Amino acid sequence: MPDEVVVYQAEAEALAMRACLAAGAREATARSLVGATLSAALYGPSTLGFPHMVDYLDSFREGRINCDPAPTCERPYPAFFVANADQGIAQLGFDLAFDDLTAAVRNFGLAVFTQTNSYTAGELGYYVRRLAGEGIVGIAATNANAMVVAKAGGAAVYSTNPLAFGFPLGEGSLPLIIDQASSATAYVNIVAAAAEGRSIPEGWAVDKAGMNTSDAAKALGGALLPFGGRKGANVALMVEMLSAGLSGGPWSLDTPSFREGSASPAVGLTVVAMMPGRPDDGLVERARRQAARLQEHGVFVPGVSGIEHPRPGSEGLKMPRAVFEAIVKIAGA
User: In the chain, pLDDT over 90 holds for what percent of residues?
Assistant: First the structure.
């Protein structure tokens, strides 16, 4: 078990805000990023919470993120939003369009938000979780720099290209949230394993020679594998088309790294939002009953199983000590 620090939610939020501002981010950017980080820390994969925030803080300081962007959003069709993040964080562009997007969904039953020119989207579940909080079904797709091979021995052509899905289960219930990479594992899991000196399962990655490896450090110098072989690679291609293809953003092959250099990844994000029927259809309640029924059969329902709701504000959040110390150092606390 890695050395951890427990920080109360209010303290974690304040520390994260100080760190973002100290790293150069403006208030609006900092608030969007901190909100998404807390959402991931409370309800998503913890590795995409505060550990991933360190990537953002480094990128603010090293020029990969525009600290004071002016995102734009056009509406070429009544229910189609096309945004440009101005090399800022993806969450800010989405947050700014959120009210108009949800209004369009309620009016037309379906709406699409697609955005280009942003830093990595972070926890993809955040976007569909926000929609589910409004009683809206969501699907989200994004890409980043190439780090996944279509098959062992091949060149890295895709990012981890995650796909997220959210379905509201009614007031007082957490929504069903599926958020998974098209690679065998998320890149942050490889980074965490390498930092902690842990081995990784075979089938997750290859080394720089294209050979299967269980050494996380060698995996970082090589590439990730798609889950399920060709089927996972097909999912990665679908996500590539939804994110880079639909938004007009760079393909993963053309995307700069989000962890080094000074160039913005400038990647794409697409979110499809749908109403779960009419208010009197009872489809949300029907879905809630089905989720409960599945859990009775021992099925793990992502976003719901094993997560306390609501999370008390007095509950402490666990952070790896190295992550906590890195954020404190940047915050100047």
Answer: 78
